[in-house]
Amino acid sequence: MLYAILCYNSEDVVYSWPKEHDDAVMARLSAVQQKLAGAGRLGPVARLMPTTTATTLRKDREPALVIDGPFAETKEQLLGFYIVECEGLEQALETARELGNANPGGAYEIRPVAVLNPPGPGFDSRSGKR
Amino acid sequence: MTQAAWIEAALTSARPQALAALLRYFRDLDTAEEAFQDACLRALKTWPQKGPPRDPTAWLVFVGRNVAIDAVRRRSKLQELPPEEVLTDLDDTESELVERLDSADYRDDLLRLLFVCCHPDLPPPQQIALALRVVSGLSVQQIARAFLVGEAALEQRITRAKSRIAASAVPFDTPSPAERTARLGVVATMIYLLFNEGYSSTAESTALRKQLCEEAIRLARLLLRLFPGEPEMMGLVALLLLQHARSAARLDANGAIVLLEDQDRELWDRTLIAEGLALIDKAVRHRQPGAYQIQAAIAALHSRAPCAADTDWAQIDLLYAALERLQPSPVVTLNRSVAIAKTRGPEAALAMIEPLGARLSGYFHFHGARGAYLQQLGREDEARDAFQRAISLAGSAAEAAHIRLHLDQLAKRSAHGTALAGNRPE
User: Fold this and answer.
1) Contacts of B413 (CB under 8 A, 6+ apart)
2) Beta-ladder partners of A112
3) pTM of the entire predicted model
4) How far apart are the C-alpha atoms of B207 and B193, rounded to whole Å?
5) Which ipTM value was assigned to this complex?
6) Model pLDDT for residues B182-194, shown as the tens digit of each residue
């Protein structure tokens, strides 16, 4: 079963981290990810830009309304996600705990994935860096 | 992260908003600061045992307020309030407070706190020092080192600035939309100056300069989060991110300035650039051009060029022309001349800046640019004079060293090279 591990944390706190600290967290997380990848369990991983870059399209009206900012104003923000193959909730929680040890603070929402489409042909996930 | 480090990060990030809410409550900067300080001390005691609260900012406001009220009551021998260990168990109380402190309050509180630091009687350096001390919570020692002044002098300066603020009426009413926009403008200028202090500054230590830049970005992002629909705030954050993205490439191993066109673009921080570009994209949609958005768009054109030769100078010239119309200033024209030099040559660039001489005679970059154009035109004696004038106005050792490179080039080519090199002013 595929699980999405959605990462919530206080953006204020995460963006107050000194770069060295951010690098250290990313290194620890990458170690956990490598372990998952080695077991063939790691799917797509995304770190989202801060919510200041977000735009929301309210499509419940005509014409749809474009609003600056994230969909929900919350104390902790959705900052990224992992897609991981797990046997069940127990293993998903265990994986989330491992990620949490590498990056304490905030919360993970663990959510089973109903459908995950493979990337379309020609999709280049590195294009964001260019 | 260790728990202590997490708590420290939480306290640092909560400070601006918590302090701002306490300022609204106590209407006095010193009382608000003391209350926040006390709340932090309690947090350091309580959080490791009970875990961090769901909303650290609301917790700090709540406890800070109670501690300060408690102190007043103790002084007047009244009954103490229950300790905060008991209060934090009352989850309802906390969430109720969170509700009341929601974005509308927070954003005007934070804007007020920053705005108070930008009191018009205070010269910009004092505004920045005050904001760093009060809003960001940097120590007097850190700020003094950043501004190259003694700690005692800085302490005194901050005290004086605070009493000047205390003497004037702090605007506690909810601002009207027009007032809010005006306050945002003033505060944005202060944040931009804070960034520049780190970017071009007098501070000798690279780490300190970086800290000032990062603090400016943190405050700008925080403001943008509270005012998500302000295109100029998007522009400001984008501008700071795009400039900061180049910081690793701006100085060489010896601390000498590396010009944009000579920078190793591999060293640019692509994550920051991507965020800056995303913000400009968002801002442009509003079709309300402003000075920060235009400057960010110029920085974006540099960021997008794979190498210096690919820079779209014609577009940069157009953007500077738009900036000149919006915010006429000799410095903007001077910057535009760089694009002119690239598109139409040094002669046109020189013709553009010669009329600025009277107004920019004390400006390092004017003489630096003028010297460079004269040098390109082969007018070496005049170039040398301009460079020497620039060196005498340099704001940092790195700036002076950079101009000295030009003088060295001239000296090498000149028949009088050796004699002149000996006469270089230090």
Assistant:
1) B380
2) A3
3) 0.85
4) 18
5) 0.88
6) 889 999 999 998 9
